[in-house]
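Pair request: fold both.
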Amino acid sequence: MSPRALPRMLWVALAALASVLSLHSGMLAALPSGLRIALAFGVLVLLPGEGWRRAIGAPLPGGAWFAAGPALALGVAWAALAVLATHLVGVPFTVLVDHGALWTLVPWMVASRTAPRTIEPFPALPRLAIAAVVAAMGLAALHAFQLGTPVSYFTDSPDHIATVRRMLASGQAFPVDAFFRDPYATFADPRKGLWHPVVA
């Protein structure tokens, strides 16, 4: 790792720590809920994922345009691992909310010691390919914005919302008592995995 990269990593880690503490303490309660959710997603998922990417020296496929992809994948994996660890030791996974600042810092602390000095980059994508992918992403975002969240009796959204609500109420990552009567009332619903507690 270059000498200049270490201070940058420390600044990123400190900014993430300050953001997590501000969200947890309610200092940012005046902000719109959508903005707070986006900030929480960034500091609890994307930033730790980027820290692990740097720690293992993984190159960016497609360049900086698509940096969020590897960060999202590694960030979700890290959060899921933390949830699974709480389940194995028998404590509510909601403790991660109280101590979120600590597990958010871990990837950057590791990266400050293990990140390679240079990372062999992927071959650059042609500009036309990048433009096509960005256009597809824009159309998908526009479609999602126009459609909105499909919450109705004709979708499975109530099931997922109820599951997340029950997880938060009980502190159990794999609740065995759902709000809706179903054939999985006596054991964990196999349709749900680690993604739901990460969302919760």
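--- second member of the pair ---
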Amino acid sequence: MKSAVKYLLIFLSTIFIFIKCNKVEIENSSKVLLKNESLLLTGERFKDIVFSRSDIDSSMDIPYKSISDFAPGDTQKVALSLDFYEPRKSIDTYSLRPLIIWMHGGGFEGDDKRNERETCLRFAERGYTVASINYRVNKSLSPKRINGTITLRDLHLTLYRAIQDARFAIRFSKSKAIEQRVDSNNIFFAGLSAGGVTALHVAYLEDSEIAPNVISQSTKDSLGGFDYGGAFLNATAKVKGIMVFSGSILDLAVIKPEENNIPAILLHSGIDNMLPIVCGDSVYHLLDMCSGREVHKRLKNLGVRSAFKFYDSTGTPTRFVDGATHGGVVTPGSGIYLTDDGFQFALDSLSSFFNLN
């Protein structure tokens, strides 16, 4: 009888230990699940696809700025808006998510934020929030370019307006950070072509550094400063980093040796026929500009984190976009600007530079 009781106690003890161990294992598994339950697909957030397309929410045409139209002194207002993409809040348990503000290209003459949908979705699938912005474009540039009447002043004023709108979009996004569950300390500005040109000048140029022979003080007074618009001035337009695709800068000297200079991820075609890979004449044949490769060299010399790539998926040192020399799309109308190889390079650089996980 005693032996039977003894074996019964051993058996019950074994069952208790088994249940307790499994309870701990289940609790530990739950903790892992809670930490990563936003990862619906297997992979590393911010580098791999972790959300399905059906779990990406988008809000279109969110107004962020109403301002005078293009010409200095113009009183007609233009409404600027953005499209916002995010992993669905109900399944994304990250309380704060990094934001990429994306600026479309188009030679500062046209195009639209809606054409960037595919690029924005690709980032959102990997756990980013994305704001694709419209900005003031100068529709008079195209006919002037065609008939040869375009001037340096036209180009300088066009870029100035784009910088104003980009900086306003950054400040606006910071003002909405809590509402949108955006980490205001991890906001990145990115753009293609004209958007990339703007990104570089948003990061490294201040309006006080513009020489009077480029834009006169009276014209700047008429245009307002870079942060003209008055709203959200409690937030700065400084970002954590920039991503530049087929973009160039007017003067490398504006990238100054500052301890807190902004890191950059840069991609450029080796056979770009609009913004050459070297410092030199650009598409309008009025401005000498320096490509992302030259910006990369300058940043590295100053000890600022920078990554540069101009190899395509085949490893050929020519273009980062298949079938295009400058910012062209892989499939017309698709909004796909980067090969998987180039896109992954941008993702890997973002993740390694800024420790987002």
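Observation on the second member. Residues 5-39, 311-323, 328-336 have pLDDT under 50 and may be disordered.
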